[in-house]
Amino acid sequence: MIIEDSYLDENNEIFKRLENKEEWITLSKYAYRFWTAEKDPSNVWEELIKYMWGDIIGNPDVAGFEYWGNVYDDKYERYWCPGWHQDKDEKLAETKGETICPKVSTVYYGSCDNLEGGFLEIALPEYNRAHNDDSNLTERIFPMKNRIVIFDPFRWHRVTPITNGIRYSFQVNIWEKPPSDAWTTYKDYDKYHVVEDRIEPNKPVKES
User: Fold this and answer.
1) CA torsion angle 29 35 41 45 (round to 10)
2) Using one digit for the tens of pLDDT, what is the confidence trace for 80-94?
3) Alpha-carbon distance 199 to 111, whole Å?
4) Residue 94 in contact with residue 181, Cβ under 8 Å?
5) Residue 136: pLDDT band with limits 50, 70, 90
6) Is 136 a domain residue?
7) Dist. CA 171–CA 40, nearest whole Å
8) Closest to 208 in 3D by CA, of 21, 28, 14, 65
9) Count of structural domains, the chain
10) What is the CA radius of gyration of the chain?
11) Considering the domain boundaries, does residue 200 fall inside one?
């Protein structure tokens, strides 16, 4: 696992654009997007992915980047209770019972002012499934603005309840092959599901 603070320089144009919380709220209204990077970035999120992972774009072992955003506050559990999970091909797991995970998971945090709770908890590698709350079995990362966390998506992880503040997070998964529900052709276009009833706090579709 890698944790880096002050990831973007505050003079970086991407950082400045991400100061606009409307960017985060708009992103969080979509279940996910998949970007092959065959075309130039179409939004600030793809620009951030290029900044993060530009050195592997074009690598034959990288099919693309699945990304989504979450905006949580202390009311979000009314809609959804977070649990232990792996990032995986959800459709394949549901239809065939197979667990295929992306190569790498990345979390980048936006504003987390006055935040209490909302930890990213990751089960230690020797535990292939986490069904308890034993803090000795997990690594615990507190969300901080402009912090990036890179970890193995095969490891079980979750987000703990928030008791105060708002947590803005951006997630990216790197796939060797597109997940089975990304699209039927590998052309570069947005396939996403609009969640019409999302108002802050948003009902998240993906976790982390």
Assistant:
1) 40
2) 545 788 899 888 888
3) 18
4) no
5) low
6) yes
7) 19
8) 28
9) 1
10) 16
11) no
